[in-house]
Amino acid sequence: MTVVGIGADGWGGLPEASRTALREADAVLGGVRQLELLPAECRGERVAWPSPLRPAVPRLLAAYAGRRLAVLASGDPFHYGVGRALAEEAGPGGLRVLPHPSSVSYACARLGWPLEDTEVVSAVGRPLARLAVVMHPGRRLLVLGSGAGTPVEVAALLRERGYGPSRVRVLEQLGGAGEVVRDGTADDWPHPPGDPLNVVAVECRRAPGALPLGAVPGLPDEAYEHDGQLTKRHVRAATLAALAPAPGELLWDVGGGSGSVGVEWMRAHPSCRAVAVERDPHRAERITRNAHTLGVPALRVVSGAAPEALAGLPTPDAVFVGGGLTAPGLLDACWDALPPGGRLVANTVTLESEALLAERRRRHGGELVRLAVAHAVPVGSFTGWGQAMPVTQWAVRKPLTSDSPSGAQS
Ligand SMILES: C[S@@+](CC[C@H](N)C(=O)[O-])C[C@H]1O[C@@H](n2cnc3c(N)ncnc32)[C@H](O)[C@@H]1O
Predict the structure, then answer these.
(1) Can you give the residue ranges of the Tetrapyrrole methylase domain (predicted)?
(2) Distance from C-alpha of 107 to C-alpha of 48, rounded to nearest angstrom
């Protein structure tokens, strides 16, 4: 199977190796728009991708097994393209890939932006809300458009998140005869929807007075909508450090409250995943809103009480218990769900739960710490310390084998 990248310049923009693969194929799979770019000299059967594409891939590949098959992909097949699905099915050795420059390479070429300094976000089949994680003053972003409406949606999101002064350029039909660039700012986006094939380039500028959100855990408490049930900033930063999110890992945030721990876990890396379990349905809804506002719309929220609500959840790499520690069976259910090497962190401000954590530490090892944060507050005309309730935190790593002491692993 040969995967051929093709651009808006169609057949005319293909190198000879790609043309030969398409001419000699018994069948060519591709989108309707891409198949229409092929000249009559490509005599193979033309098969349009069904929608949705992913579930149909195994059946289509099986149907053409043993025949010379070419697959048309937009630009670089392995950049947000069909290459992923094909490699999953055929294995990386089962493909011959002839890439074309991606729309992102074209955009950087037109803008004079180094690709390695440019953040790329795809709006194709994914919520645009993820943009909120990568908006930082001075950063350059490229959004792969999902249709003619993407530029207007990007401008609206930038305004809502305090980035209205950002310069926005829309690059349409990159590499094709109809290539055009539209320019404006998010605050004042003057253009009606244009071509559905577009990339939106953003030079991020934060509005004066907008809340700065950094790239590391410990976002300001004001970044969250909350009812007081929020792990406060300094304790939250220490909690995320103890949880130590790594790319691809899954967190259970048990007693999610406002969702801040799950949100900041997911902000650590685009591939981090989290499930927040919250018994109060209003708070569960609030977690969804916070996840959306703070750029991690994929955070899964389970509305229900643990431990019952934990049943059937995918195996976590780490568990945070921020509420419900004294609920019968909750801590055991979390511990049992962890695979060997998994991490558990539990925070509490009550003596009853603290006693429970001290007992667990005797049994499983790990680290018990007390986090006491005080803020400078006015005392008459002077200043004193306003002491927040101290938080007791137990952080432990489950032993890798049944006979190794967990203390040595933590
Ligand atoms: C202190 S808050 C957690 C704050 C959270 N880490 C944050 O930063 O937003 C504790 C939460 O646990 C929830 N909770 C208590 N018991 C629970 C249980 N058994 N199952 C699920 N949630 C529970 C409460 O409703 C409350 O929202």
Answers:
(1) 2-188
(2) 28
Pairing relationship of beta strands 198-203 and 167-172 according to DSSP bridges: antiparallel
Is pTM beyond 0.90? Reply is yes
Q: Give the residue, by CA position, lying nearest to ligand 1 atom 3.
A: 257
Whether ligand 1 lies within 6 angstroms of the CB of 221 is answered as: no
Closest atom of ligand 1 to CA, residue 259: 9
Domains observed in the chain: 2-100 (3.40.1010.10), 104-203 (3.30.950.10), 221-409 (3.40.50.150)
Ligand 1, atom 15: nearest CA belongs to which residue? 324
Residue 409 confidence (pLDDT): 41
Residue closest by Cα to atom 17 of ligand 1: 324
Dist CA 323 CA 194 (whole Å) = 49
Report which of 69, 166, 356 is spatially closest to residue 60, judged by C-alpha positions: 69
Which pLDDT tens digit goes with each residue over 302-348? 999 999 999 999 999 999 999 999 999 999 999 999 999 999 999 99
Residue 316 CB–ligand 1 contact under 6 Å: no
Q: Specify whether the CB–CB gap between 251 and 274 falls below 8 A.
A: yes
CB 264 within 8 A of CB 333: no
* C-beta 230 within 6 A of ligand 1: yes
Check pocket membership of 303 for ligand 1, CB cut-off 6 A: no
Q: 381 pLDDT exceeds 60?
A: yes
Which of 263, 275, 278 to probe ligand 1 with, by most ligand atoms within 8 A of CB? 278
Sign of the alpha-carbon dihedral angle for 22, 23, 24, 26: positive
Give the residue, by CA position, lying nearest to ligand 1 atom 26. 257
The verdict on the CB of residue 307 being under 6 Å from ligand 1 is no
Answer yes or no: is the C-beta of 322 below 6 A from any ligand 1 atom.
Answer: yes
Residue 117, both tokens: 């300094």
| Identity of the amino acid at 52 | P
Among residues of the chain, what percentage have pLDDT more than 70?
98
Query: 253-265: string of b/e by CB count within 10 Å (b at 16+)?
Result: bbbbbbbbbbbbb
Write the DSSP string, 205-258. Answer: -PPTTPPP--SSS---GGGS--SS----HHHHHHHHHHH---TT-EEEEES-TT
The reply to whether ligand 1 has any atom less than 6 angstroms from the CB of 347 is no
